[in-house]
């Protein structure tokens, strides 16, 4: 890995890695709740970059090797269960500002913003609050924050509320079991590769408190449907039809909330990025981003088209 670090403002430093030609149209990949940037598989990033993009993945605040807000309020189970976070350490809007701050550090004026799960919520917030910085939006396996769409199945609650083990081997076993519950039933999974990714996450720095603060940020941000009406960027919504952690209704609600959004559903896909679906997912992201650039008159995109 070629990790680098960028100060993005408000005392936050993000760990990131880039792929491809820096002069190509930029794509930012925003990861989900408590999950490190390495969940954007290196081969996934390289494939996307090979299609004419400068791709950057990064650890969100409170995750991996980015700034930990140790000492900040950690929501308890009662707060999370009641969806009432009276003193959140931060909200999705703050994480969106981190993303824009990373763009500033990389001297990127406007980017294609792609997010999964919580990362999709962050990407949506970037597009809604920072329209001049957003070339296009792709929201994957995410929702609008509304209480009656995109909610988790009951069997996933232990995943959301359970505590990760402190022992490395137990952490890997727990992670593999978690992905087994929320992952894609319609695609084969390489168990060895999955366990290697979980082990690397442990070694890079797991943070149960950071995950709880991120969940608090989601809940404290509430229903974002009204805010999403402000999104002007071309929008693609991708959702797995077998997603148990964020029900497919979350994807439908997101597409409905954003004017002109296009919804793509993938049979057999759960709450992960299964390798068997990469060609479809990467193709959709690349086609959407190139199309947005052509529509905007980007000269390089027009030549590529």
What share of the residues does DSSP label as strand, in percent?
15-25%
Order of helices and strands: EEEHEHHEHEHHHHHEHEHH
Mean residue pLDDT: 94
List the uncertain runs: none
Largest sheet: 8 strands, mixed
CATH superfamily: Alpha/Beta hydrolase fold, catalytic domain
How many separate structural domains? 1
**Number of discrete helical segments:** 12
Shape: globular
Task: Spell out the blueprint of helices and strands.
Blueprint: E1 4-9, E2 12-19, E3 26-30, H1 42-50, E4 54-58, H2 77-82, H3 92-105, E5 111-116, H4 118-129, E6 134-140, H5 157-161, H6 168-182, H7 191-205, H8 208-221, H9 225-228, E7 235-240, H10 248-257, E8 262-266, H11 278-296, H12 299-304
Parallel strand pairs: 3-4, 3-5, 5-6, 6-7, 7-8
Antiparallel strand pairs: 1-2, 2-4
Helix pairs in contact: 3-4, 6-7
Any key phrases for this structure?
305 residues, alpha/beta, eight-stranded mixed beta sheet, 12 helices, 16% strand, globular
Give your account of this protein's structure.
The mean pLDDT is 94. The longest helix is centred in the last third of the chain and has 19 residues, at 278-296. This protein has a single domain (4-163, 207-304), classed as Alpha/Beta hydrolase fold, catalytic domain (Rossmann fold). The chain is built from 12 helices and 8 strands. An 8-stranded mixed sheet has the order 1-2-4-3-5-6-7-8, with helices on both faces. It is an alpha/beta fold and 305 residues long.
